[in-house]
Structure formats: C-alpha cells, structure tokens
Amino acid sequence: MPFQKLGLHPDLIRAVKALGYVEPTPIQREAIPLGMQGVDVMGCAQTGSGKTAAFVLPILHRLLTHPKPGLRVLVLVPTRELADQVQSMFRECGRFTHFRVAMVIGGVGYHDQIRAVKEGAQIMVATPGRLLDHLTQRAFNLTHVDHLVLDEADRMFDMGFLPDIRSILSYVPHERTTLLFSATLVPEVERIAAFALKNPQRVEIARPGTTAEGISQVLYPVVQSQKMDLLVTLLKTTEMRSVLIFCRTKFGADRLAHFLETQGHPAEVLHSNRTQGQRTTAMTNFRKGRSRILVATDIAARGIDVHGISHVINYDVPLHPEDYVHRVGRTARAYGVGDAITLMDTEEQAAVTAIERFLGVVFPRAMVPDFPYRYPPRLVAPKYMTPWQRQAGRRAKFSRRPGFRRS
Ligand code: AMP
Question: How far is the CA of 48 from the centre of ligand 1 (A)?
Fold first, then answer.
C-alpha cells in the first residue's frame, strides 16, 4: 500500500518520497490513520519498526489541516539521543512545511532553548527532567499543547521519570490527543497509560518482547577474562561494517574502548558521564562512518538511529531481557539485516536463560576456531528448555529474512 492511500497532506507525501520511503511499515499503516483522526493511541512497537514516523506524520498532518497558533506538540523522550532523532524526523517529514521544532534536553544551555520556544516553535521534543526545570521556573508554558507523545514509555519508566511525567501532565491541557509508544507493554506502561490516555486504541505490531526478524543471533560462551581477546579476534576475522558494542557500566565501556584502541581498533564511546559535546562527536563520527566501532552503555544507546549497523555485540549480557531487545533492535532497522553477538561468561548463564525464556528461543552457541580457549566452551544449551523452545531456537538461527513479524 503506498503512502498516498493514507490520505496524508500532499506536503507530507512529498517529504516521504524525498526520504525514499516506498510504503508504510506495519506500525505506520495502523497508527497513522488513527493519529490523523485525533484519537489516543497506545502503540507497542520496537525501535527499527518505523514508529517515529508513525507519530510524526499524523501529527504534522493535523497541524496542517487544523491550524492554530502556539506550541501545539510536546514529545517526551527518555534520552537526548532519542530527542535528536525525533527532532530530525520532524524536520525531515516537515521539510515542505513552515513548522519549527525546539529541543529541550539536559546537558546544554537553558537560554537557547527558551529562545527557540519563544521565537515560535510549534513542536517541542523534550526529556522530562529539563522540561520540568523550565516549567517550574515559568520559562514558558504548555497551554496550547493539543498533541502529546510519550515515546519509549517503558524506558522513561525504567529511568524513574514517572513522577516528572505526572508533574508535566499537570501543565498540559486535558483536551488533547495523546500517543504512547513502548517496546513492551509491561504493567508499568499500562499504569502510565491509565493516567495519560483516554480510551486508547491499541496498536500492537511486534509481539511484546520479540526482536525484529532479519537478525541472526548467536552466543559465544567464554570466560570473562578472555572476553576482550575473543572480541578482538572476532573483529579481525569477521567482516563487520559497523559495530555497536554494549557494556553494562560506564567504566567497562571506557576500559574496553581503550583496549580496542591499543589493539588497532579505534572506537568511539557513548555514556552519560561524557559531555554533550563528546557524545555528539562520537555519534557523528559513528554515523558518518568515520569510526567503525561505538562502545556504549544501555541508557546512552537508547534512540541511536544509525543506518546500516551490521553488528551489535553484547560484551556483557544485559541484566534485563527488555534491554536485550532494545540493544539488538539497533541492527536490522527498517528492513535491514544484521547480526547480534553475545559474549557469555558462565556467571551470565542465568541472565541468558531469562532472555531466552522472554523471547521463547534458544540461541545457537558458537566458538571461534583456533582461539586459545582457557576452558572448552560449552556449546549446548542447558537442559531446562522445552522442545518448543529448542525448535524456536533453530528457527532463530536460520531466520535471516528481512521484514516484520505481525502478531
Ligand atoms: P524508528 O523505528 O522510528 O526508529 O525508525 C527506524 C528507521 O526506519 C529510521 O531510520 C527511519 O528513517 C526508517 N523508516 C521509517 N519509516 C520507513 C518506511 N516507511 N520505509 C523505510 N524506512 C523507514
């Protein structure tokens, strides 16, 4: 189905064409018509599914077809990087319109943000903490907002933004359209929905807790003390165009990036202890292909949108299965194909088990030939699996088909 059939404003159809999108993704097919009608939507979609355009396009359509003065759109996101990505999507989809976007995020000066709003932005993309600062200082108001988006609501909850969101909502008029997107519809998200949305229409494309198809997932069992060497061997022996490596801690990320550098694999680092300038430079270098490797922590990597990440490597197994889904969602974005590699120490077996249960798969185990393993890696999964899980694991191994899974 082409975009024209959705009935979007011609200026938006032109922009979508210029972006090279041929047809809407499943979440866009479902959410855009609802958003255009102005009903509340609760969307369950993972990153990479095209969810940003799924709310940006109908909102721009409504601004064009129901014009009114003032700041009318507020998008709340968990991280600065995601704010940047959402802002770019508004700019790209709105390139043939006159709308202005203001970004309100931590880590940068207050003054320019206030000026951008006062100069007449119609759209604001904000992280909750900084926005609340501005609101309590009465730097500007949200009295004309009639479209609210809560993006990656599950992560905003994880990051402890729930009280801030509640406070922010008290500054936004009740008469509004609210769209909420989340990778997983966990009970906490339902709680946010209960106070923020009115009779929402549910749009659920990917089954909660699934990773996008098109990703081949593999596990390399190895002791912690050999992980760095194994990683370097993998980087040398595997064709990896663009690699995103996840570490659990900021210190671990710094240490790993430094080690990779000494081994002839320069890497950018992204975590919340770095200044906004350092984060922007790291992202620009990675995005433009000047750096092949980016080492990141979960929170910092949230919202990274880089085309053509060929490999996601979990240097540490994430503690929460949802984090695995988010990490791996960085590859195979919008019809791409990618590989997700997880290095697993025996201590991390329980976390892997939790992820496998969450996804209903068993990851294939692999070893690197000729690597001087200190202990022979265990290549069979423990026995706890049901036959159904084993079968699903085999499917995960061979599914390299691009596309989306509909539930
Ligand atoms: P998101 O899930 O919003 O993070 O989007 C993931 C990527 O998909 C972004 O790079 C978008 O530019 C891209 N994208 C969004 N919609 C489409 C579409 N209809 N066709 C192709 N790519 C798309």
Answer: 6
* Contact call for residues 152 and 52 (beta carbons, < 8 A): no
Which residue from 60, 333, 335 has its CB within 8 A of the most atoms of ligand 1, so it is best to mutate? 333
- Same topology, domains 3-204 and 215-387? Answer is yes
Tokens of 347: 């201590």
**Whole-angstrom Cα distance, residue 351 to residue 194?**
31
Lowest mean pLDDT among 20-24, 57-61, 362-366, 379-383: 379-383
User: What CATH code is assigned to 215-387?
Assistant: 3.40.50.300
Q: Give me the residue spans of the domains in the chain.
A: 3-204, 215-387
Joined together, the tokens standing for residue 228 give 């760095």
Nearest CA, atom 16, ligand 1: 50
pTM over 0.70: no
- Of the ranges 246-250, 304-308, 391-395, which is most confident? 246-250
Pocket mutation for ligand 1, best pick of 52, 95, 205, 307 (most atoms within 8 Å of C-beta):
52
- Of 21, 304, 306, which is best to mutate to test ligand 1, by the most ligand atoms within 8 angstroms of its C-beta? 21
Instruction: Determine the topology of domain 3-204 in CATH.
Output: Rossmann fold (3.40.50)
With a CB cutoff of 8 Å and minimum separation 6, the contacts of 195 are 166, 169
Residue nearest to atom 5 of ligand 1 (CA): 50
Share in percent of the chain as helix, strand, coil (round to 5): 45, 15, 40
Mean pLDDT over 204-213 rounds to 56
Provide the pLDDT for residue 370.
86
